Structures are given as structure tokens and as C-alpha cells.
Amino acid sequence: MSIRSAFDSSRQFLHLLIDRFVAVRCEQVAASLTVTTLLALVPLITVSLVLFSGHPVFDALGSALRGFLLDNLLPQKAGDVIAKYSLQFSQNAGQLTSLGTLILAATVVITLLTIDRAFNAIFHVARPPRTLRRLLVYWSVITLGPLLLGGSIAATSYIASASLGLINEPVLVRSLLFRALPFIFVTVLLTFLYFAVPNRTIRLRDALTGGVVAAVLFALLQKLFGLYIARFPTYTLIYGAFASLPIFLVWLYLSWNLVLVGALITAVLPEFRWGSRVAPPFPGRNIFGALLVLRELGQAQRDGRGRSSHHLAVTSRQAEADCEQLLEHLREAAWIARDDEGAWMLARRLDGIALRDVFARFSFSPRCIPADAIDDVLTQRLLGLHEQAAERLSLSLAELFD
Q: What global pTM score does this model have?
């Protein structure tokens, strides 16, 4: 690959990334997550403390997790103060009334649903899972995540310390290893987030790429943020003892932006790889794509095999995210379904689907006109033209594809 082509590819990728960032309004989502995270911080810490304090064997895990968070996920200036007051607030959580407990629980739920909506928009998820299922998954992450993360940090640190002590490595090697461990843990955590949370198929290498880039940006942000606070103590001069709060808010906002950027990279990579294989946008693309998908599934029915989402996206020359949305619309119409292996197949024979039904589904349907507009003159004319066109589009898809 020449330097010019590499530059063009990089520019194209950045263009896709910026377009998706603006379309999803990531800066607004990050601001919303900043506020809800600030409100949900105390109940989250309370849950973690209950888990660790209820079992003495987890004391080492809790200590390892607290050290990891303070050293790697919080700004240096505000980390100690935030940890101090969060601990005090969480210890007072036991004195809350039932109403106060419900309000704290609601803040956690709002935070989780905001994250879920942002990821659905970034990954073009047309049909998110049910709310109860999503909350159960996220609550499992909240309750089990601290245990697994703390255990991993404690175990890895112990193994690394023991092995380095046995082989008597130089101090430089030890320093590099222990500096690399936090980066590895953050990468694994973000990769899991990008791979498991979206309600669609995500390639592990794409999630890993997004996780690595976000972790690198996170490490740079921590260093630059700490340097800025140390060299330009504006917040401290203005806010005095309360400087930790605005520092923490800015840190949360920037951190959430980086998390969303990693998700954007994961989502955009498949579209970028396809390049010229994706047909350019044109009027009626959804109708044409639906017909291509249904024709391919008709061939699959004759072959006695289903088709994967990736195969259908290639056949219809669509990005995988766009094809996923199209497939969900076709499934809602009860024209296609998934088999036990997750492959797509026809749910109806092609001779039972009329071309006018496809046009009504993806273009114009009289049923979509509001009731208060039925008497409008333009509406009546459109309805008449639609009825005339429907007669010409009454042939079945089996006749169209033969």
C-alpha cells in the first residue's frame, strides 16, 4: 500500500468516524452519562462494598480493585478526595429510607439504559432486547464485575510478583510489567463491553481494536489531565477545597467520550473494510435491498440451507449494520425468520408475498397516513394513485424473480 492510498484510507475512516459521532450526538450522550454516573456512583460503590465486606476472603480483592481504580481510572488530583467522600456516602447509605433507596436504584437503572441506548444507536441495533433482560445483564455485570476484576488484578499481581522474584528480573522489567497490567485490564474490560453489549453480531477483532484504541487514549488522557492540573491549577485557585468536583466532572465527560469513540471504531470498522463493495445511497435503496435479500433467501430455500447476515449483506451490497436493520424489518413483516443455528430463512413462500406489499412496507402505505389527514385533498389523490399502482404491482415475488 502506497503512502497516498494509506492517507486516503485513513481520511475515509476518520470521515466515517466523525459522521457517526455527529449522527449519534456522542457529546450529548457523554454529558448525560456524566450526570447519571455522578448520581449512580454512590450506589455502585455501596454494592461493591457490600460484596467485599460480606466475605472476609474478598478483602484482598477489594484492596486490589480500589488501588487499580485510584491509580488508573481517576485523575490524580481528585482521586483520593473522590474515594474518601464516596466511601463516606456509601457507608451512610444504610441509613436511607425506602424512598431514598429506590431513588438511588433508579439512578443506576437510568445510567445503564443510557449506555444501552447509546450503543444501540452506534451499532445500528434495530431491535434491542427486552428491558428486563437488559437490566438483568447489566446488573450481573455490576455485581460480578467488581469481584472478577478485583480477583484478576490481585491474582495477576501476585503471580507476576512471584514469578519475577523467582527469576530475579531487573527493576526495569518489573516496572514495565506492572505499568502494562493496568493497560491490559482496561483493554480487556472495554473489549468485553464492545463485544457483549450490542444486540448484534460483533467480530472479536473489531471489539479488540476498539478496546485497544480506547485504552491508549485513556492512558494518554490520564497523563495529560494530570499534567494540566499540576501545571495549570486554575480549578484549585477558583474553587479552592471544592476543586475536586469540577475536576471529576470534566474527567467523567472526557472518559465517556473515549468509551464512545472506542464503540464507534468497533462499529465503523466493518463498513470501512467493505469499501466499494457497499452500494452508494440512492432513492429506493431499502426496497431494492429487501428484494435482493428475499431473492437470495428464495434460492436458499431451494438449496435447503439458511443464509447468514454477513452473506446477505454481501449479496445485497449493504453495510452489515444497515442489513441487520433491513432484516429486522423483514422479520417484523413475518416474511423471514431465524433457524436454530441463527441463519436466516423464508417464513413464507415467495408466491405468497406480493410486490406491492414490499413497496407498502418500505415506501408508501395508506395505513401510515394519520387519521386526521384522511379528508385532505392531496391524501385522497395519493390514495387513488396508490390503488392504481397496486394493481400493477400485484404480481408475487416468485413471478418477479423467475
A: 0.66
